[in-house]
């Protein structure tokens, strides 16, 4: 289970208490009635859906109830940091990005599990 | 006409054994309070219970308890006589919101050396004394139900759940206690 740090509760809480709420830092147009259909589509539907570092909204729904933002690697599922809603998009250091990279190919954690055949065909069915 | 009789959904249930005992908590007044920090301080003064501002902490005084739920949300629990809502509604010009959830919630007390093991059967929180000390509280999950958990003493917990979930929560707890 993931442990997610809630910036309002100021501690790590189990994943079950949280709900994801999509991409973060999407500004709602102030002139909603004036924008074109294409602009509305871009604001409402189009998401970056990056493989790698993503900025997301999360909600501590079974806790303090607050929305907050999180930076996470969508491949390794590791969080870099979480911060309160309304705070600026944090600038990430190279070390922070490197710390959440998934294991490189060839390392045991990144290899599919191969199960060797355990039956020989002889003497198994008695 | 007389008022309708309220029936406590967990009446007459009891469990004891395997180092844990479960007991339903009788009727209480429960108020969900939303207020900003300045108002909350004034309301705490009026109630005689200083509302906690430290995340996940509970303050009890004179039979009333204020549980920190969120940065602007508290759960107030007191005797079943309406004194909290009466006090709060007489505080004058303050702007805040209260909802009476006395009958929406019910509660179970879990006591005994195995109480954390029983709670951890359905609650993913770290309930060690270092992570969840005495007088801490939080809204969390127990099985599929949303609950408010409050540690009164080292081996005594108060578990608030919705009335409609109480049968599920009780059976879950009793089942875990039997195999604790």
Description:
The complex is a heterodimer of chains A (126) and B (180). Chain A has 126 residues and is an alpha+beta fold. Chain A has one domain: Folate-binding fold, CATH 3.30.2270. Chain A contains two helices and six strands; from the N terminus they run βββαβββα. Chain A has helices spanning 37-44, 94-99, and strands spanning 3-6, 11-14, 19-23, 53-59, 67-73, 79-84. In chain A, the strands form two sheets. A four-stranded antiparallel β-sheet of chain A has the order 3-4-5-6. In chain A, strands 1-2 form a two-stranded antiparallel sheet. In chain A, strand 5 and strand 6 form a beta hairpin. Chain A is extended and about 70 Å long. Chain B is of the alpha+beta class and 180 residues long. Chain B has one domain: Gyrase A, domain 2, CATH 3.30.1360.120. Helix content of chain B is 21%, strand content 37%. Chain B contains four helices and eleven strands; from the N terminus they run E-E-E-H-E-E-E-H-E-E-H-E-E-E-H. In chain B, the strands form two sheets. A six-stranded antiparallel β-sheet of chain B has the order 1-2-8-11-10-9. Chain B has a five-stranded antiparallel β-sheet with strand order 4-5-6-3-7, with helices on one face. Chain B is globular. The N and C termini of chain B lie far apart (48 Å). The mean pLDDT of chain B is 94. The chains are: A alpha+beta (126), B alpha+beta (180). The interface between A and B is medium-sized, with 15 and 14 residues.
């Amino acid at each position: 289970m993931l442990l997610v740090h809630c910036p309002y509760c100021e501690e790590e809480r189990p994943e079950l208490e949280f709900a994801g709420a999509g991409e973060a830092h999407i500004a709602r147009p102030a002139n909603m009635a004036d924008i074109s259909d294409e602009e509305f589509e871009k604001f409402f539907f189009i998401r970056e859906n990056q493989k790698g570092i993503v900025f997301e909204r999360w909600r501590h729904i079974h806790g303090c109830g607050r929305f907050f933002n999180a930076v996470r690697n969508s491949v390794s599922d590791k969080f870099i940091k979480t911060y309160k809603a309304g705070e600026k998009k944090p600038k990430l250091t190279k070390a922070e990005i490197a710390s959440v990279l998934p294991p490189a190919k060839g390392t045991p954690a990144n290899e599919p599990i191969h199960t060797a055949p355990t039956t020989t065909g002889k003497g198994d069915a008695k | 006409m007389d008022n309708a009789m309220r029936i406590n959904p967990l009446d007459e249930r009891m469990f004891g054994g395997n180092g844990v005992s479960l007991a339903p908590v009788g009727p209480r007044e429960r108020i969900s309070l939303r207020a900003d920090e300045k108002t909350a301080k004034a309301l705490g003064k009026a109630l005689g219970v200083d509302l906690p501002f430290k995340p996940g902490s509970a303050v009890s005084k004179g039979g009333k308890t204020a549980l920190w739920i969120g940065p602007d949300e508290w759960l107030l629990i007191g005797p079943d006589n309406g004194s909290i809502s009466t006090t709060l509604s007489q505080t004058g010009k303050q702007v805040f919101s209260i909802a009476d959830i006395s009958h929406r919630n019910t509660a179970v007390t879990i006591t005994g050396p195995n109480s954390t093991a029983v709670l951890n059967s359905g609650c993913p929180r770290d309930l060690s004394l270092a992570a969840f000390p005495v007088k801490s509280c939080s809204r969390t999950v127990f099985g599929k139900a949303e609950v408010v958990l409050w540690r009164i003493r080292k081996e005594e917990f108060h578990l608030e759940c919705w009335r409609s979930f109480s049968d599920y929560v009780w059976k879950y707890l009793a089942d875990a206690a039997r195999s604790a």
